[in-house]
């Protein structure tokens, strides 16, 4: 059972078996005084629910080593740790997101290892430690298209088996999809997907299956 007693239950949202802190949660209000995320990591983003919904139907094997890129508060990371029994690392360039990641994990009685790094920092040697790479709403600037595509190339070479990216449907995400389809036509899938928890949300999934 999640350790809910330390959190204000009125300001928790539930989706796909995990609890998420809302902006009005007293713990979040306190954290905001000390940690101010500044690259859009100031809340949980809905694309994460697409990954959760996809994984409900396409479960990870037990003990998969998962890296969430641009984890922010880490809803997808926490879901993988709590509901898919994965060993999860949450990577973000902005160290101010990690206190939120920590309380989200604590609210769900699981652990996510924080890793402060940029997409460009992740070399093959580090990527070799992971089976699956996920990311939700992380391809929102032009420069990120190339950063992520290059990271995917290194990840494939390092033996990462699967990459799952979710997005509301930005043009930068389309660009990334085009590059991936051209580079790895056999591994590439693009899906229109929707999540029904905590409410209906439509978006896209990019899946690269290198296995
Ligand atoms: C829109 S938020 C999404 C957060 C989280 N994935 C979610 O769905 O709630 C984008 C996240 O990517 C991180 N980010 C942006 N550029 C990055 C980079 N080059 N390397 C690592 N993280 C980055 C930001 O700090 C932020 O936490």
Polypeptide structure, described:
The protein is α/β, with parallel strands linked by helices. It has one domain (4-209): Vaccinia Virus protein VP39 (Rossmann fold, 3-Layer(aba) Sandwich), CATH 3.40.50. The protein contains 7 helices and 9 strands. A 7-stranded mixed sheet has the order 5-4-3-6-7-9-8, sandwiched between helices. Helix 2 (47-57) packs parallel to helix 3. The longest helix is centred in the last third of the chain and has 17 residues, at 142-158. The structure holds S-adenosylmethionine. S-adenosylmethionine is lined by residues 39-41, 44-45, 47-48, 70-73, 75, 92-94, 97, 118-119, 136-138, 147.
Bound molecules: S-adenosylmethionine
CATH class: Alpha Beta
Query: What fraction, in percent, of the residue positions are helical?
Result: 25-40%
Terminal CA distance: 34 Å
Q: Describe the global form.
A: globular
CATH superfamily: Vaccinia Virus protein VP39
The averaged pLDDT comes out at 92
CATH topology: Rossmann fold
Given helix and strand content, the structural type is alpha/beta
Task: Note the run of SSEs as H and E.
Answer: EEHHEHEHEHEHEHEE
């Amino acid at each position: 059972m999640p350790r809910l007693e330390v959190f204000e239950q009125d300001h928790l949202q539930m989706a796909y078996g995990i609890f998420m802190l809302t902006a009005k949660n007293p713990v979040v209000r306190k954290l905001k005084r000390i940690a101010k995320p500044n690259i859009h990591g100031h809340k949980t983003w809905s694309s994460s629910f697409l990954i959760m919904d996809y994984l409900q139907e396409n479960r990870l094997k037990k003990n998969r080593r998962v890296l969430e890129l641009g984890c922010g508060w880490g809803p997808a990371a926490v879901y993988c740790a709590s509901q898919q029994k994965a060993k999860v690392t949450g990577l973000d360039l902005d160290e101010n997101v990690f206190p939120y990641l920590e309380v989200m994990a604590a609210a769900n009685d699981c652990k996510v290892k924080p890793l402060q790094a940029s997409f460009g920092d992740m070399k093959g040697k580090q990527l070799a430690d992971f089976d699956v790479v996920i990311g939700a709403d992380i391809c929102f600037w032009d420069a990120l298209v190339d950063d992520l595509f290059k990271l995917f190339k290194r990840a494939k070479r390092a033996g990462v088996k699967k990459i799952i990216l979710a997005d509301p449907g930005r043009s930068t995400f389309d660009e990334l999809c085009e590059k991936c389809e051209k580079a790895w036509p056999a591994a590439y899938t693009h899906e229109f997907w929707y999540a029904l928890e905590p409410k209906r949300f439509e978006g896209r999934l990019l899946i690269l299956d290198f296995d």
